[in-house]
Amino acid sequence: MARLNQIGCVLFNHKRDIVIAKVIKAWQEGGRGCAKIQFDEDQESDTIYKKVKSGTLKGVSVGYTVDSWEEVAAGKKSADGRFTGPCEIAKRWTPLEISIVSVPADPTVGVGREMESCTGATHSRGTDCYTRQLQINYNKYRR
Predict the structure, then answer these.
(1) Which of 32, 39, 50, 80 would give a disulfide with 21, using CB separation of 3.0 to 4.6 Å?
(2) Domain spans of the chain?
(3) Are 23 and 8 in contact, with CB atoms under 8 Å apart?
């Protein structure tokens, strides 16, 4: 969370040229990321703020880079025993930005809840990050 606390910003739909807020404080709580943010006072930010306040926009996402992966072979268990392969698990990752999003990859997180990038990035093995996030969610909730 150090990077978010030092230079973190909030974007709209992961668009780097649409900065709408700053991160006041970012922290982990109960295994989830949380943040207190302050919206900017320009017209574009105000529009997004009003949509969040009215409940029209509820989705939150995080743009990140993965620092360390665990590869789990087919039929094998992950080191912590939570997942069965084949899969790849992000063991260490760095949040780069927070985004208010219109269509979140993970609908279980959002504004006003205990919080949790896809900018079209592709993992080195060719897996689209949205597809990978859906697999992570599937593994998490099928238990």
Answers:
(1) 39
(2) 2-141
(3) yes
User: What residues are paired with 21 via a beta bridge?
Assistant: 10, 39
Q: What is the pLDDT of residue 136?
A: 60
The amino acid present at 31, given as its one-letter code, is G
Prediction pTM value: 0.69
Nearest to 36 by CA among 50, 48, 51, 21: 21
Which contacts (CB < 8 Å, 24+ apart) does range 78-86 have?
Answer: 82/139, 82/143, 83/139, 84/139
Tell which residue, 15, 35, 24, 43, has the closest CA to residue 110: 35
- Write down the residue that tokens 């094998």 correspond to: 76
Question: Quick one: the chain helix, strand, coil %, rounded to 5?
Answer: 20, 45, 35
At 141 the pLDDT is: 53
Instruction: Find the Cα–Cα–Cα–Cα dihedral 12, 132, 121, 94, rounded to 10°.
Output: 70
Contact 8, 22 (CB under 8 A): yes
Residues of the chain whose pLDDT is less than 50?
113-127, 130, 143
Return left, alpha or beta for 48; rule: phi > 0 is left, psi -120 to 50 is alpha, else beta: alpha
